[in-house]
């Protein structure tokens, strides 16, 4: 006898017996009649920000009405969450870990996040473009080089915030090479107890 409440707001499917439906929304009443059972009634209601509740009752051809009411509620949220604050790695950080872990601060109202990791600052064809429900993400294997990363927050209503400022992380798994040491500019002898050492290596920091 009762109409079945659909997932979208203001849309109901009547049962085989129901012929009249009364909808109440924000103290306004609307009565709808169907000429064919199983008819789907769709209409638009002007939702307000925040919680909105709709109630509905039905009556069949014999005059039997539902006792109580069927209701559903939906929250109208059009405000996007803020930008995440990136924590680790620090901008320009170098690591020999090819699967670095990224971490950022919690954003109020966010239910998930989207992280992008790319080999270019424009994030064209990012190597990683992943949804995350926590504030920590460990990447798959990254090749040597400079990687850019950014994160945005998404709330339960699907509103997406702006991406954070990007940071870079440098993956370096190559050991320094070409070590050399020179004493006093290459002198063979000295009469001083203090000498000058010149040490160099390719790739050393």
Which features characterize this protein?
disordered N terminus; 4-stranded antiparallel beta sheet; 47% strand; mainly beta; rod-shaped; 205 residues
Topology:
Blueprint: E1 4-5, E2 11-13, E3 18-25, E4 28-33, E5 40-42, E6 50-60, E7 70-76, E8 86-88, E9 93-95, E10 101-104, E11 110-118, E12 128-132, E13 136-138, E14 145-155, E15 167-171, E16 177-183, E17 197-202
Parallel strand pairs: 9-15
Antiparallel strand pairs: 1-2, 2-5, 3-4, 3-6, 6-7, 8-10, 10-13, 11-12, 11-14, 14-15, 16-17
Number of strands: 17
Instruction: List low-confidence stretches.
Output: 1-21, 33-37
Q: Cα-atom Rg, whole angstroms?
A: 32 Å
Average pLDDT rating: 78
Strand content bin: over 45%
Structural class designation = mainly beta
Span between termini: 78 Å
User: Rough shape?
Assistant: rod-shaped
Instruction: Count the DSSP helices.
Output: 0
N to C succession of SSEs: EEEEEEEEEEEEEEEEE
The strand order across the widest sheet is: 9-15-14-11-12
| Largest β sheet strand count, sense and barrel closure | 5 strands, mixed
Helix fraction bin: under 10%
Characterize the structure shown.
The termini are far apart. Residues 1-21 and 33-37 have low confidence and may be disordered. The strands form five sheets. Strands 9-15-14-11-12 form a five-stranded mixed beta sheet, with no helix packed on it. Strands 4-3-6-7 form a four-stranded antiparallel beta sheet, with no helix packed on it. With 205 residues, it is an all-beta fold. Helices cover 0% and strands 47% of the residues. It is rod-shaped, with a radius of gyration of 32 Å.
């Amino acid at each position: 006898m009762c109409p079945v409440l659909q997932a979208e707001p203001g849309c109901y499917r009547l049962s085989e017996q129901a012929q009249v439906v009364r909808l109440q929304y924000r103290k306004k009443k609307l009565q709808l009649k169907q000429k064919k059972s199983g008819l789907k009634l769709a209409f638009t209601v002007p939702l307000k920000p925040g919680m909105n509740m709709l109630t509905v009752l039905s009556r069949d051809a014999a005059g039997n009405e539902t006792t109580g009411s069927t209701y559903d509620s939906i929250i109208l949220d059009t405000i996007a969450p803020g930008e995440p604050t990136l924590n680790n790695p620090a901008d320009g950080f170098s690591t020999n870990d090819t699967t670095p872990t990224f971490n950022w601060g919690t954003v109020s109202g966010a239910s998930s996040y989207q992280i992008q990791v790319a080999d270019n600052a424009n994030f064209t064809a990012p190597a990683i473009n992943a949804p995350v429900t926590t504030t920590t993400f460990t990447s798959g294997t990254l090749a040597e080089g400079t990687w850019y990363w950014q994160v945005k927050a998404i709330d339960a209503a699907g509103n997406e915030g702006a991406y954070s400022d990007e940071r870079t992380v440098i993956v370096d798994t190559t050991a320094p090479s070409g070590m050399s040491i020179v004493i006093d500019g290459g002198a063979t002898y000295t009469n001083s107890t203090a000498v000058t050492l010149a040490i160099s290596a390719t790739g050393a920091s």
